[in-house]
Amino acid sequence: MVGIKSLFPLILIAASLIFGDPPEGAVPPSPSGTPGNTILAEEEEYIYEVSWSFFKLGTVRVKSFPDLHAEAYVDSYEGVPMVDLHAIQFCVMDSLFYSRGSRALEKKGEQWWGLEYHYDFPAKTIVVDETYQNLPNSTPASHQAKDTLRLQDMQCIDGLSIGFFPRRFIQTSQAIAVPTILYGKLGHTTFYFDRKVVEEEIDALERPVRVVEVEGVTDVKGIFGMTGDFVGWFSDDSLGVPIKGTLKVLIGDITIELTKWNRKGWHPPTR
């Protein structure tokens, strides 16, 4: 197994987006079996702080809804050297946490650069469009086709669903490789699940959190240069909430840690 260090690439973090319905195109119904519907039965919101060594870089706010769509907002703190990042991600998933539609926006200068993913399920292709717009919720001023990705099937994850997909498997022992789209490029992410239960400390709680450790590696490059080995720690319960993670980005290894949560009836499991 690889030497590993990183997760909640949700970090997740990973592409960016605009608000609204998923991209046009026929979206097939969710497959039978509903782990996603069970895990996301309640609306939830989690806020993470991103740090590099002793330096606090910014936050990631993730919201998900019972209809299986999710949003992520990535913002660096003002005045942080080397880092000026503001991005939004949007994803619609099926009940197995595969992506069924996604959009991404990232602020570049005075404009927002974006990628839209148009899923054509019968043709087994995803058309990637590049956009520029003045505001996150404004109509794109420019819009052009960038690439067409071809998949053997349409079971893939993207820069946001990559943080939800492992939640189905943390109580299992297996290795899973899944096609992954980051920044308009297609590659693979491999997760290694082995039911390794440990305790991790987070600043938000006085007691350590009981978590399941998941290692993995991705061969595509995501937001802020995220790629390679990663480690994530998910709550050791039926929801598998991402608690903490480490990953590799342009400036080196960073840590993402849960600081606030809002999920009806849920609290991180502690010793």
Top keywords for this entry?
single chain; mainly beta; 1 helix; 15 strands; 2% helix; disordered N terminus
Distance between the termini: 29 Å
User: What is the SS-derived class?
Assistant: mainly beta
Q: Return the domain count.
A: 1
Arithmetic mean of pLDDT: 84
Contiguous uncertain segments of 5+ residues: 1-33
Find the count of extended strands (DSSP E, 2+ residues). Answer: 15
Question: Can you put this structure into words, describing what you see?
Answer:
- The chain has one domain (35-263).
- It has one helix and 15 strands; from the N terminus they run αβββββββββββββββ.
- The chain has one helix at 35-39, and strands at 44-52, 55-64, 69-76, 86-93, 99-108, 111-120, 125-133, 142-150, 157-158, 173-182, 185-200, 209-218, 227-235, 242-249, 252-263.
- The protein has a 15-stranded mixed β-sheet with strand order 8-7-6-5-4-3-2-1-15-14-13-12-11-10-9, with no helix packed on it.
- The longest helix has 5 residues, at 35-39.
- The chain is globular.
